[in-house]
């Protein structure tokens, strides 16, 4: 029985207030109440046919069922309150939307009027600017036409100058070509003498190269002789230096020996004299 009651309550009451409208909510409530009444009537009819032992169980279940009905009624009342709050919020939202719509409509009218005025002002400004620009363009056109005339006159004068310069350049080109041909003739005349000079210079070069080779050979001989003489001179200078050193050493030793001999000769008689004095005393 409790399972049947739960199924009924879930089927007809477990729907959110935001997902259903007011009419659907009341319709579900009405269907739920009719089903509950039909269930109660079935329970009463079956209670008469059931024996006394099961009647107690059915009474307990009936009490539980009544408690569940009260809970469902409480939930239904809470859902009604929530639905009323949602309806009030929805009505307030509609009012706010209507007010916003009116304000936006009024603002739209104001914006359209302002745009019309601005467009008129801009069109007037643009027309005045067009007139000013047309006047400027006309003045510019006149100035450009005068400049074109002046440039045409200048072009004619430049064409005349160009023709004169071309004639002068052609004359100069003819003169330079003639001079160039004259130089070629001189070159043809001088090339033979220059070739002969080149041949003579090459012969002189070969002769000088041969003389240079001979001089280099003689120079090698002279260098070998110079090195030999240089070695002999160095050997002789070493011998003379050693002889001088030996002479100096001998002379210095003789002087030392003579000096020591003189000192010895002076010391010996003085010692003899002293010894004689001591003996006599």
- Counted by DSSP, the helix tally is 3
Give the overall shape, derived from the CA principal axes. flat
Give the integer mean of the pLDDT values.
78
- Determine the structural class based on helices, strands and strand pairing: mainly alpha
User: What sequence of helices (H) and strands (E) makes up the elements?
Assistant: HHH
Which spans have pLDDT < 50 for at least 5 consecutive residues?
12-20
What does it look like?
This protein is mostly helical and 281 residues long. The chain has a domain of 117 residues. Helix content is 96%, strand content 0%. It is built from 3 helices and no strands. Helix 2 packs across helix 3. The termini are far apart.
Write the layout of secondary structure elements.
Blueprint: H1 2-13, H2 22-49, H3 52-280
Offer a few descriptive terms:
281 residues, mainly alpha, 3 helices
């Amino acid at each position: 029985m409790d399972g049947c009651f739960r199924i009924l309550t879930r089927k007809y009451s477990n729907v959110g207030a935001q997902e259903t409208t007011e009419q659907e909510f009341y319709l579900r409530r009405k269907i739920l109440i009719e089903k509950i009444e039909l269930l109660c009537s079935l329970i009463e009819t079956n209670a008469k046919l059931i024996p006394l032992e099961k009647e107690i169980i059915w009474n307990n279940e009936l009490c539980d069922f009544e408690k569940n009905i009260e809970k469902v009624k409480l939930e239904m009342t809470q859902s009604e309150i929530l639905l009323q709050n949602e309806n009030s919020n929805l009505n307030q939202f509609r009012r706010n939307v209507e007010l916003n719509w009116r304000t936006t409509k009024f603002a739209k009218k104001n914006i359209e009027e302002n745009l019309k005025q601005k467009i008129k002002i801009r069109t007037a400004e643009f027309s005045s600017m067009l007139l000013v620009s047309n006047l400027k363009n006309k003045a510019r056109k006149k100035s450009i036409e005068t400049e074109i005339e002046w440039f045409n006159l200048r072009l004619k004068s430049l064409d005349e100058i160009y023709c004169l310069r071309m004639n002068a350049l052609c004359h100069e080109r003819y003169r330079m070509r003639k001079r160039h041909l004259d130089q070629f003739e001189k070159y043809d005349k001088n090339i033979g003498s220059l070739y002969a000079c080149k041949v003579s210079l090459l012969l002189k070069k070969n002769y000088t190269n041969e003389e240079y080779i001979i001089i280099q050979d003689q120079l090698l001989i002279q260098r070998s002789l110079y090195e030999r003489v240089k070695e002999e001179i160095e050997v002789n200078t070493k011998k003379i230096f050693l002889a001088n050193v030996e002479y100096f050493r001998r002379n210095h030793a003789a002087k030392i020996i003579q000096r020591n001999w003189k000192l010895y000769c002076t010391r010996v008689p003085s010692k003899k004299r002293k010894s004689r004095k001591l003996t006599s005393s």
